[in-house]
Design brief:
The chain contains two helices and 17 strands. By secondary structure, it is mostly beta strands. The protein folds into two domains: about 120 residues, Immunoglobulins (Immunoglobulin-like), CATH 2.60.40.10; about 100 residues, Sandwich (Immunoglobulin-like). Strands 1, 2, 5, 7 and 9 form a five-stranded mixed sheet that branches. A hairpin with a 4-residue loop joins strand 1 and strand 2. The chain is elongated. It starts with a helix and ends with a strand.
């Protein structure tokens, strides 16, 4: 009596294993909006990418490279219409181009993808409707930086929101530093601000100087911090990573 069930399972597996690329000429369409998952606010002027999916082993799909894109309007809505080229096994939506060999083309200074939802698969359908893409809008952060003595004459400041796929770099010069850096931060989240000194002299000894602060910001439009360093020699030495 169990035989029909076994045949059914085998049939489903066989159909899945024989799935082909989406036929050229098929209309691929996606409509939806981008929303901040913490502020519950729809986001305008955000680029949404249509990503090509490719077969990778039995019933597996990897998504790589953008084939089309759209920008959200003032209401945070977007619409993508694309004609399949016959080279894709499936499609997905993402706020990055999903290409590790190319720079991420999202607007790093304003919006970052939600790391818990890097892409939204079509799951072999040709249309997605009213899809909500989660993102995080970054707020401003001012870093008032004071270094009374910096014999190295250079200081690198890196700002990395915890949801970030990349980091912002600021190069500061001078034996005495008193400046303000206007950057971005992830509200209601941890942000990492690193102060580093990497000179040829230190590199020759396979060393560098680094101190990292973990900053938890609130929802204020501009979060302000004060960083005071008496001497660059107070920044701890560390071994350069291999």
């Amino acid at each position: 009596m169990k035989l029909p069930g076994i045949l059914l399972v085998l049939t489903v597996i066989s159909i899945s294993a024989c799935r082909k690329n989406i036929q050229a000429g098929v209309n691929i369409q996606a409509d939806g909006f981008v929303i901040d998952s913490v502020k519950n606010k729809k986001l305008a002027n955000v680029t949404v990418y249509l990503i090509s999916g490719h077969e990778s082993g039995f019933q597996n799909v990897y998504y790589y490279g953008a084939v089309d894109s759209a920008v959200t309007n003032t209401d945070g809505s977007f619409s993508i219409k694309y004609t399949a080229d016959g080279k894709s096994y499936d499609y997905a939506l993402s706020l990055t181009n999903m290409d590790p060999n190319a720079p991420n083309h999202f607007n790093f200074n304003a919006v970052m993808p939600d790391r818990m939802h890097p892409f939204y698969s079509f799951d072999f359908k040709s249309q997605l409707s009213d899809i909500a893409i989660s993102a995080r809008e970054l707020n401003f952060m001012k870093i008032h930086l004071s270094v009374l003595s910096n014999p190295y004459d250079t200081l690198l400041v890196f700002v990395n929101p915890s949801y970030g796929l990349d980091q912002m770099e600021y190069d500061i010069y001078g034996n005495n530093i008193d400046t303000t850096i206007l950057t971005r931060s992830l509200p209601e989240g941890q942000n990492f601000v690193s102060y580093e000194i990497i000179t040829n002299q230190l590199r020759d000894s396979i060393m560098f100087r680094e101190i990292t602060d973990t900053i938890t910001t609130n929802l204020s439009d501009t979060f302000v911090i004060q960083k005071n360093i008496s001497s660059a020699y107070d920044i701890p030495l560390a071994v350069l990573p291999h």
